[in-house]
Write a structure and sequence with these properties.
Blueprint lengths: L2 H44 L4 E4 L3 E13 L2 H11 L8 H12 L9 E13 L3
Antiparallel strand pairs: 1-2, 2-3
Length: 128
């Protein structure tokens, strides 16, 4: 094998190993962020706050969403027919709005519909 080929193989192997190490570190940091985000979300919720603004770091605000997932199309269509005929096409965006309202205690989740949630913190960094 040529010296040039040996060097290229070595460069590739080293770069690949560094990338794998960074990917592993990224996974660890992402898990750390998820835990910190959940704790901050819960603390804001416990304090009855939707957002907090700091002078040095910026604004942290809750983003609590839910998305509808139709599990029984016939039941969901029957509900829409009786309660929201404009939704007979079962528009997922509109259905998700119904689910979000129900989760706030304003109505109920339609039969045949489940949901997934996303609890996130939005961070708008302070201007420097």
């Amino acid at each position: 094998m040529s010296q040039k080929l040996d060097a290229l193989i070595s460069d590739f192997a080293n770069a690949k190993a560094r990338l794998q190490n960074l990917e592993a570190e990224k996974k660890e940091l992402e898990a750390e962020v998820r835990v910190a985000e959940a704790l901050l979300f819960d603390a804001l919720e416990d304090d009855g706050l939707r957002s907090v603004k700091t002078d040095d770091l910026g604004t942290f605000s809750m983003n609590d969403l839910a998305w509808a997932k139709i599990e029984d199309r016939e039941k969901a269509l029957a509900w829409a027919d009786q309660n929201r005929p404009e939704m007979l096409t079962l528009n997922h965006m509109q259905l998700s709005m119904v689910v979000r309202e129900a989760l706030k205690g304003e109505g109920e989740i339609p039969p045949g519909v489940d949901f997934t949630t996303s609890r996130k913190i939005n961070w708008r960094k302070a201007a420097k």
